[in-house]
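Minutes, project check-in
Item: structure for the 501-residue chain
Input as provided by the requester:
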Amino acid sequence: MSTASIFISSVQKELAEERRAVKAFVEGDPLLRRFFTAFLFEDLPAADARTDAVYLDRVDRAEIYLGLFGKEYGVEDRMGLSPTEQEFDRATRRGKPRLIFVKGTDDRLRDPKMAALVRKAGDQLIRRRFNDIPELTAALYASLVEHLERTGQLRTKPFDAAACPEATLRDLSREKLDRFLARAQAVRGYALPPRTQIKAALTHLNLLDDGLPSHAAVLLFGREPQRFLLTSEVKCLHFHGTEVRKPIPSYQIYKGTVFELVDQALDFVLSKIDRRVGTREAGPVAPVEYELPREAVAEAVVNAVTHRDYASNASVQVMLFADRLEVWNPGELPPALTIADLRQPHASIPRNPLIAEPMFLAGYAEKAGSGILDMIARCRRAGLPAPRFRQSGGQFVQTLDRPLGVRGQKPPVQVGHQVGTKSALSRHQVEILRKCMEEQPVTTLMAIAGRADRTKFRNQVLGPLLAEGLLSMTIPDKPRSSRQRYRLTRAGAEYLKRMKK
């Protein structure tokens, strides 16, 4: 099947990174590469022909005009027109589908002629704004999928863009969406504030399919995502040895949105690996160093949850062994990427762009294509081998070696003294014990752990503390009372005392 050409129009020097990212994204995405190729003028070999004649001829031959409008207008010809405006006008006269993406929101910062071009385009068609490459590629993905549907070339939408069967806007959580908007605004300067209407927010994130929430919307903001997508859960397993053996000492199945899955899986790993608490010499909060860099573990989990194949019946698995951490997710690398490519600067080609963008906006993922490199760098700075990657039976596997396992020694002992037969407490649980030196309501303790679901918080965080006798309830015969408070027991105080030694 022949592919249609997308002509990428912009001021080349100003938006060089965006131009290359768009080409890599279009030609690397498993779906889009079947239908499109992207044309960049700078890729043409030298030729004895007028530049303007060449690029206008390429506009004529392209199926889609893609305009990237920034601050600069570009070099003007004798008529006072830049190549970008000439290309836009040519595509308009030829009746080409035009996709316009405007970088930034403050038009006062643009060259007056570029600001005028932005207004001219806005008078004729719908423009989309973007601030960074993840926003651009996610919006482009939605626009190209819509084009394929409109032209009859695509009868079934990609999984993340397609409506989630039986789900409605009522199945999304207002609270979870507001929490995301507040975080995205604080971390990335996102334009929409909390309390934005749900439909408007989802439209801005390209998460609606004919007015219904897409699979991506349910995974990001659903009240109960696993009600619709059963295998979107994350399974976390802890083995004391170096092989998968039963009985499994610790096995947790986590449910929730993709944000909650990442938080819970990360907390599981960090609660079970060696950690060192520093002094408060540099500030009021004592630094905590883990045997595996926290950011590297987080990146591995974020990768698995964001880029997994959600159409698969398998789930993400996080397995902690005595000598290594393995994170498995259903799916394979895009055809344009190899295992070797991951170890050098590479384009970001997300399997689920409509999930990847909100993960970036909320600060769970960093700049496109840099996450794996950052993971490698952090492990090396910690004196550990670089993470290993492999494909195995339709699964992508990330492996981080634990430090003692590298030297062939016995599994490390948990720092912080074990309580009974249970593993050492998580950082949040230790903070809760300290807070409960004075009686505290459950809402205060939930805020410490950053939890929103009261039932899950009681079961996963408070339950073990109560079971081990480290905390007690002020009204034990009415555990769900609104006046219930939690306080530190003598055993809890002894535990904290041992932590200081």
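Outcome recorded: The mean pLDDT is 87.
No further action items on this chain.
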